[in-house]
Amino acid sequence: MLSAARQPAIAAFLAANGWADARRAPLAGDASARRYERLVRDGERAVLMDAAAVPDQVAPFLAVGRLLAAAGLSVPTVRAADPGQALLLLEDFGDQTFTLLLAEGADPAPLYRLATASLIHLHHHVAPGATALKRYDIAAWIAIVHLFAEVYVPRHGRPADAGELAAFEAIWRALLSPLQALPETLVLRDFHAGNLFRLAGRDGVAACGLIDYQDAGLGCVLYDLISLLEDARRDLDPGIVAACRSQYLAAFPAIEPGAADAAWHALALQRHLRVIAVFDRLAASGDDRYLVHMPRLWAYVGTHLRALAEPDLNDWLHRHLPAAPWT
After folding, report:
1. How many angstroms from the chain centroid is the CA of residue 34?
2. Rounded to the nearest 10 degrees, how much is the dihedral formed by the CA atoms of 62, 64, 69, 73?
3. In angstroms, rounded to a whole number, what is the distance separating the alpha carbons of residues 113 and 127?
4. Rounded to 10 degrees, what is the CA torsion of 84, 87, 89, 91?
5. Cβ 40 vs Cβ 23: under 8 Å
6. Residue 225: Cβ within 10 Å count
7. Does the model's pTM come out above 0.85?
8. Residue range 52-100, pLDDT digits in tens
9. Beta-strand relationship, 184-187 and 44-50
10. CA torsion through residues 158, 160, 161, 167, sign
11. 196 sits in which H/E element
């Protein structure tokens, strides 16, 4: 629910754009700091986004949306915007998220092929230097995974001192070095079933609706595919994972398979440890909805640690988390 303090600004925004008399109902926003409402007026629908808690996300959301739309991908049309108030009025994609479709028993294979095709299209049609975006280089990925060492580890094990944190960084610098052999592209960072829609009446990759791309930047081409196929919230048949990886890599024959494997394991491990820390921090603040996903995340961690056969990170984790939840 949007806060009472925001209501005067929201009312003025809606009135200025012809939606003052719309019926309003809250929409779930997952773990987001943004707040959403569905608006209904004379049979027409729209989505109100209030980003007052994170106003710096509005400009990148708009910029990335323009890039994606220009490339022929489906993003919500912006019907009205007041960046100064961090308010947007967006096209309503409806309720047919991949998450809902899968829960209702839809065949996952076509959905994941469509999502993978959308990534391929994105990476072929959006030039990496098309706009000024943050860059997710190795230093940035290391800074992001530091959340695990600084938030999760002290709550569940032995905190790391300055020297041990420096060792953690050095381990990750080596682990992520294979990323240098892979191209960079636009990465959306939240490319998973909950943020994808199956849009009726649209063909090809346009049938896949995309939302939540305000954290997009330039980074490793594999990141969003990892986000899609190793989803924290659901198990995916290994055959679908293998098929989608093959579908993607076949579209980029210049990517050497060995380099792709090494980068995949390291970047997936980085992502899962960060998500573990994010979910744990939410639980510490009273939102424990995501703890149900921890066993899956730790299973991913164990899989990638074994695949990398890298003793230094394994030893570091054992020293600080004696319970070893990944084994």
Report:
1. 15
2. -130
3. 23
4. 110
5. yes
6. 27
7. yes
8. 999 999 999 999 999 999 999 999 999 999 999 999 999 999 999 999 9
9. unpaired
10. positive
11. strand 196-198
